[in-house]
Amino acid sequence: MTRNFLAIIGHRRLLQISFAIFVLVYAVLIVLRFLDKPFVVDNNDHYKELFTDFLHQGFYQSSVSGTSALYNFVLAATYQFTQSVDGAFLIVNAVCDLFYLVFGWYFLKSLAPVNTAYAHMVFGVYALYIINQQSYLHASNDTFLGVFVLGLLYVGLVRFKSPSLKDFAAMGLLLGLAFGTRITAVYLIPPVAILIWHWWRQNSLEPKYKIAKVGFMALIFVITTLLFHYPSLIEKQKLGYESKEPKSGATWIQRNYLGLKKVEQGKEALHRDAIWQHTKFDVVDAYLNANGADSLPRTFIQAVVKDPLLAMEIGLYNCLAVLGRFLRFWGLLLLLPLIVFFRKGSNRLTKLPIILFFVFAVMLSFTCYTFIEFRWFSGYEILVPASILLSIGHDYMTVTPLKNALFTLSLMLVTVFNLKSILGS
């Protein structure tokens, strides 16, 4: 029975048909999403105002006030040609999306140099996933930051197989550029540390030479970061990132805590709107005025200490949301790297991409202290197809009908979800 099922589902012709339908339905979804708001650039995080302030105040004062320095530098250069704020955001983020596609293909090809139909389908799924995000229609710097994330992961996974001093300089520079863009670049530090540790264990150089190379990388990182933040460091003794908190003094942790408590108490539905729509800062201010300035925790540490169970609950919920998100867009293929991870005999390089993705996803899930947003995964999502490609080449995946069946079922599953999205729109 199982053999007959595998013979049917794993037939090459069914796989080809499934992929063709998958691409067609995905294309319809992308077109419908585009027609819903053609070339209308959202401003949900108020980056348009941040950019216009940068144009009027200049780099130094903007850094002191708080800004996304490198992102606004690139936007300003683009603005010289477009003379349009929306046009600058659209072009910069569209170029970033194009970079994800072109460099992403090169990255995957370099990491897993296989030229098979499976590899082409994996990249096809990745490409449609990137196009469907339509990052060029959002005025935010997540996609821009992801360019440096993608570059760092390439250096660490591909170039660090046999790195030169230039590769260490590149890693330090890319990390510095990321820190010149957005504070969430701090999430890159653990993955970079894992990549360095992996290189350290695999390399036979004397410790003093290893220390010298890593020290050189750190020096490049510090110098690059200082170039973007020196005005704020001079004036305020802190890095010059933008603040999204109101002048009333309330913090995002207070807003998130209040919204999450309402969910926990059954006063709000388990949805991000419990915070974004129903717990705005004026609600937080009113609560603080009624209950005292110390009634809500101001920092993440204070929130965890005040209610560790709530912090654990939102962290676990976010982890499940991440799993659901990537199963929705990758189907059963996401299980392949998980099988390889727990299988004895797999080499470290094969496991490394899924380890990096797991570390980032868990770290973000438990520290964001809100409902996770998947734009924060920009750049990191390359680790999923990278893990799948390396898993396909593993020794247990030698049976062609089994591979065909896994791909067919995955394509069918994602197609069903896409059809649901189309009908829902």
Can you walk through the features of this model?
It contains 19 helices and no strands. With 425 residues, the protein is mainly alpha-helical. Helix content is 72%, strand content 0%. Helix 2 runs parallel beside helix 6 (117-133), helix 4 packs across helix 5 and helix 15 crosses helix 19 (400-424). The two termini are 39 Å apart. The mean pLDDT is 92. The chain is globular.
Supply database-style keywords.
single chain, 425 residues, mainly alpha
How would you summarize what this structure contains?
This protein has 425 residues and is mostly helical.
- Computed over alpha carbons, the radius of gyration is 23 Å
Supply the helix-strand structural class: mainly alpha
The average pLDDT value, as a whole number, equals 92
Q: Return residue spans where pLDDT drops below 50 for at least 5 consecutive residues.
A: none
* Strand segment tally: 0
Percent strand: under 5%
Number of helices: 19
N-to-C series of helices and strands: HHHHHHHHHHHHHHHHHHH
Separation of termini? 39 Å
Biggest sheet character = none
Helix coverage percent of residues? over 70%
**Principal-axes shape call:** globular
